[in-house]
Amino acid sequence: MLDGLRARLEKLLADHTPPGDPRARTTALHAALLETKVAVSAMRDALSATEQALLAERRQLEDSERRGQQAARIPDPETVAVAERFAERHRERTGVLERKVALQRDELALAERDLEQLTVAYREARQGTGPERTPAQEAAWRDLEAAGGTRPETDTTDELLKSQLHRADLDRTVDAQLEHLKQKLRKEP
Known about the structure:
Structural class: mainly alpha
């Protein structure tokens, strides 16, 4: 399912994105993002259904093993043989469902990772910060930089300012907690 989804997404992007047209690429990314979200939701539903089937099969296995033990207490070899055949079928089915659940979880993890990457690509395309900028966008950024502006992805002073503000907030919090403890110690006899 995942390979088919990935192939359809790549084909959709390739077919509907003329070179150098960021709006078309953004629209195609949005369509691919929606399709991927639907596919991930369907995969989650399928996993849930398989997990429920596994729980039911485990209960049936427990029941058949219990019945086999009860049949062993009575001297009827045919009943014991039938009970053992049922238990063996349920063991095999449980094993198959356990492997299926593991594979579905792995496939879902891959699809969720693809969804996350597609979401990031879509956001970048909408904001114009993706790697596929048009020549006009690059020229606009160069003009902004020449006028003293900075690109969001290269603005180190902004990150430094955020870090300093965060550190100041932490210092204020620590100071307030320390003052509270001092007052508490002063009040104790």
